Amino acid sequence: WPLNIYKALNDILKSKIGKKQRDPALKLASVIVEVLSIEWTLLDEERPQQFFLLLIQLCTVEVRMQLEDRSFKEIMDNADLVTACFTFLEIAITYLATDSLDLEQKEK
User: Fold this and answer.
1) 33-71: per-residue pLDDT in tens?
2) Closest Cα partner for 25 from 74, 73, 59?
3) What is the dihedral of CA 39, 40, 45, 46, to 10 degrees?
4) Which family does it belong to (predicted)?
């Protein structure tokens, strides 16, 4: 089942989607990474780091969009999404700090 979820989320997040599809996909990706570890994002044999980097970019953008120029109430309304994104980013940064992923210079 991990590969099926990987393929589905990869397809969803690479597509042009709205907030209603993106938010649950990011939350699910965060939970899956917590359960299966960050290596789950590297299942693609051809370009293993592509999905990993996509999730980093999407989570970073989402956090910024949720926190910038928003009232405290608006931020709290989406606290579960912000928490999921920060959780993923924390796990990703920890993984990158171990220098286990071989990134090209332009990807760093």
Assistant:
1) 999 999 999 988 888 889 999 999 999 999 999 999 999
2) 59
3) -90
4) Belongs to the neurochondrin family.
